[in-house]
Specification:
Helices cover 61% and strands 0% of the residues. The chain is mostly helical and 180 residues long.
């Protein structure tokens, strides 16, 4: 068995070092410079168009939409007391929550996003005019149209709200971890 294995190894190594034919085969590289640069330019033009084809957005998924609704929708819902009191400064401080809610919750639905942006513009137009009743009305319409609800608090004795520090519910009322 060992002898036959050694024999096969010697024969295969001898075949690897045997001289081969010296004849050159014809290749596609037999061309002049002008033709070569033409092909290079064509390949460059094709490759320049490839990134436009691959324009998929993997950041839009049901999970990211839910994350935007909970994170920024919760911040918007928390403004209810500021709206009732007519505290325009508190509402203006949370302008980014409105912008991020609109872009995150409706990333895949452009018509709903357009409606949400119009609702946001109505709220801030009422703030600029200084009309408390108009702010209340615009805020109520915005919350109802976008189905914004406050984040329900989680009791750590009856459940767990998140499981790691990377969860989007960490700094919300839903952030509860059961500790024994």
């Amino acid at each position: 068995m060992k002898l036959s294995l050694i024999a096969v190894t010697l024969i295969s190594s001898a075949a690897a070092f045997a001289p081969s034919s010296v004849e050159r085969s014809s290749t596609a590289l037999n061309m002049d410079r002008r033709a070569a640069f033409g092909q290079i330019a064509t390949a460059g033009a094709v490759l320049a168009g490839v990134p436009a084809i691959a324009s998929a957005d993997g950041a839009v998924s049901p999970a990211t939409i839910e994350r935007a609704r909970v994170t920024y929708g919760g911040r918007i819902a928390d403004l209810k007391s500021a709206v009732e009191a007519g505290n325009f400064a508190a509402i203006a401080e949370e302008k980014n929550a409105f912008v991020l809610f609109n872009s995150g919750a409706y990333a895949a639905n452009k018509s709903k996003k357009k409606e949400a942006v119009a609702g946001t513009n109505n709220i801030f137009a009422a703030i600029r005019s200084g009309d408390k009743a108009a702010v209340k009305s615009a805020y109520s319409e915005y919350v109802a149209a976008n189905n914004i609800k406050p984040i329900a608090p989680v009791d750590p004795n009856s459940g767990q709200g998140y499981s790691s520090d990377f969860d989007y519910r960490v700094k919300t009322p839903a952030a509860a971890i059961y500790v024994r």
